[in-house]
């Protein structure tokens, strides 16, 4: 805009205006250059957070949903159902479905249950259906929550469910009736244990019964006798004791013990039910357990054929808890099968 002179005076030309304009333009240009440089150096970077500001954590991702493969269903709880039709060795079928390492572990777990129902593999028939609801665990043996076998030879379907009763130190496998799947020995070497992991009759050519039990569990003599051996073949047997019964030729071997009492000397007399040692993991052993072996002369005898046996049953007040768990596990199996 043009300036007009004041009336009565001649307006003198001033140089202040142009100087101020040049200063403003220069400052604006410098600010623009600074902004352009900052924009280039921070492009692609997140905005800076104020000091000590709390950064919101991202929401957890939903489990990845995949299309089930043959014989396998996965759900969000990481429990998987494996359903196979037997056509040859069980181990081969399980390895084909899950891979060698997992398949071999599952074979051992399943066989421990099947042997209480049928002779493995003699009683298995082509077309028998085997369902296993299991949970895979890193660096640990899988957990089988439920096992179901539709047996053509027996003409029935066997069912076992893993359940830990209130006040019980271990989870065990139960029939729907509330009875344990496993038989127990009267006058057993242990008052309690988690599971039997090997039998004379399970087809593995094992010479005794392996009881999975924590180290330092009290081990008892199963009959009156004399201690006739201790700590022979330590590399294989670890700490061990042999007790012989006078007149019958029967011997009991207790292997992989944690330690032997000083009183456990050759020639010592023991009585049935007397604590003679404690269980452990010594010798050729991969986990704490007790190996209990019976001999008649030089022949291996099956403790489940020599001892009287029984099945332990849940108390009436504990049965509703098992029934609820069976309903839950059956529901998981039905849902998994429906989604195949």
Low-confidence spans: pLDDT under 50, at least 5 residues?
1-16, 18-22, 34-76
Known CATH architecture of the largest domain: Roll
- Structural category is alpha+beta
Number of strands: 18
Order of helices and strands: HEEHHEEEEEEEEEHEEEEEEHEH
Task: Using the coordinates above, name the CATH class of the largest domain.
Answer: Alpha Beta
Helix percentage range? 10-25%
| Separation, N- and C-terminal Cα atoms | 84 Å
Describe the structure.
The structure is a single chain. With 340 residues, the chain is an alpha+beta fold. The protein has two domains: 69-182 and 312-340, Nuclear Transport Factor 2, Chain: A; 183-310, Glucose Permease (Domain IIA). Helices cover 23% and strands 27% of the residues. The chain has helices at residues 16-41, 90-98, 100-114, 234-237, 303-306, 319-338, and strands at residues 72-74, 79-85, 129-135, 143-151, 156-163, 172-174, 184-185, 195-198, 209-212, 218-220, 225-230, 239-244, 250-259, 269-270, 275-279, 289-296, 299-301, 309-310.
């Amino acid at each position: 805009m043009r300036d007009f002179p004041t009336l009565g005076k001649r307006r003198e030309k001033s140089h202040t205006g142009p100087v101020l304009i040049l200063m403003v333009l220069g400052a604006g240009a410098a600010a623009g250059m600074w902004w352009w440089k900052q924009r280039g150096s921070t492009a692609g970077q997140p905005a800076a957070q104020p000091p000590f500001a709390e950064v919101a954590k991202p929401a957890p991702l939903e489990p990845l949903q995949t299309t089930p493969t043959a014989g396998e269903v996965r759900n969000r709880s990481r429990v998987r159902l494996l359903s196979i039709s037997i056509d040859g060795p069980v181990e081969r079928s399980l390895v084909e479905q899950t891979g060698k390492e997992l398949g071999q572990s599952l074979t051992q777990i399943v066989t421990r249950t099947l042997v209480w129902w049928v002779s493995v593999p003699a009683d298995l028939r082509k077309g028998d259906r085997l369902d296993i609801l299991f949970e895979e665990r890193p660096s640990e043996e899988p957990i089988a929550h439920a096992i179901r076998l539709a047996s053509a030879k027996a003409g029935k379907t066997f069912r076992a469910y893993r359940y830990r009763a209130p006040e019980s130190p271990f989870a065990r496998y139960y029939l729907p009736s509330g009875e344990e799947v496993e038989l127990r020995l009267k006058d057993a070497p242990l008052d309690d244990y988690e599971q039997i992991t090997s039998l004379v009759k399970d087809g593995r050519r094992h010479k005794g019964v392996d009881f999975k039990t924590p180290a330092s569990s009290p081990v008892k003599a199963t009959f009156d006798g004399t201690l006739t051996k201790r700590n022979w073949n330590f590399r294989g047997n670890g700490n061990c004791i042999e007790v012989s019964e006078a007149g019958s030729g029967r011997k009991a071997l207790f292997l992989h013990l944690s330690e032997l009492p000083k009183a456990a000397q050759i020639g010592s007399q023991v009585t049935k039910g007397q604590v003679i040692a404690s269980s452990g993991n010594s010798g050729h052993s991969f986990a704490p357990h007790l190996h209990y072996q019976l001999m008649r002369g030089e022949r291996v005898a099956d403790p489940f054929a020599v001892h009287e046996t029984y099945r332990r049953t849940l108390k009436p007040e504990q049965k509703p808890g098992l029934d609820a768990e069976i309903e839950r596990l059956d529901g998981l199996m039905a849902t998994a099968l429906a989604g195949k």
